[in-house]
Write a structure and sequence with these properties.
The longest helix is centred in the C-terminal third of the chain and has 29 residues. The protein has a two-stranded antiparallel ribbon with strand order 1-2. Helix 1 packs across helix 4, helix 3 packs antiparallel against helix 4 and helix 3 runs antiparallel to helix 6. The chain is mainly α.
């Protein structure tokens, strides 16, 4: 793929928040008269969570830190190994989004005086749907799977991974207290659904 074309594809991906996941640094405004939602980009540093939060907010954000660090590991491998150019671009777009989201979430937790990592004892997460289920061995396997099988292996694993983010977000939406954290949960659900749709198209293409 020519460098100029590749750059255009990446740029297009990054400004399509509900298609390729740019949810951490964008907000959706009310629909315009034509029924089209407008997106106003907002720098991560400008999104402040405030001081009103509960245990569900903290647990959700800590679990998202854990989840997104896994996602960054997987997409880093995909950028290097994906054979389908569209998958490579998708992985790059997701990387950009999740790096921004991770910085935002960690800043909120630090502002609340909370740890940015999560205790991985399974018994502590029963009420929150459990920790993200993607295992370290599965993530590492992406680095060694045969080249011809990589795209399928990545898509299968990452589909499940992003579905987990959607499930965690449901808990925050119903049990969280902090308004920004709850809005973030909504954006996670919407963007990950868009990513899942794109991945399914790649799998069936």
């Amino acid at each position: 793929m020519a460098a100029a074309v590749k750059r255009r594809l990446i740029a297009a991906a990054l400004v399509a928040p509900f298609v390729l996941g740019a949810c951490g640094t964008a907000r959706v405004a009310d629909p315009d008269p034509a029924g089209q939602a407008t997106v106003a980009a907002e720098a991560v540093a400008e999104i402040k969570a405030g001081d009103d939060f509960n245990d569900t907010d903290v647990m959700f954000l800590q679990m998202m830190v854990f989840h997104q660090k896994q996602g960054l590991q997987m997409t880093t491998t995909a950028v290097k190994r994906a054979r389908n150019p569209e998958l490579k671009v998708l992985a790059q777009a997701i990387q950009a989004t999740e790096k921004d989201e991770l910085a935002m979430v960690e800043s909120w937790l630090k502002g609340w005086g909370k740890k940015t990592d999560v205790d991985q004892a399974p018994s502590l997460h029963a009420d929150h749907g459990g920790l993200p289920g993607t295992g370290a061995a599965e993530i590492k396997a992406l680095t060694t799977v045969k080249a011809a099988s990589f795209d399928t292996a990545f898509l299968n694993l990452f589909l499940a991974h992003q579905h987990q983010a959607m499930e965690m977000s449901k808990i925050e939406k119903t049990g969280g207290k902090n308004e920004e954290a709850k809005k973030f949960a909504v954006r996670v659900q919407q963007s990950r659904q868009g990513e899942i749709q794109q991945m399914l198209k790649l799998m069936n293409g």
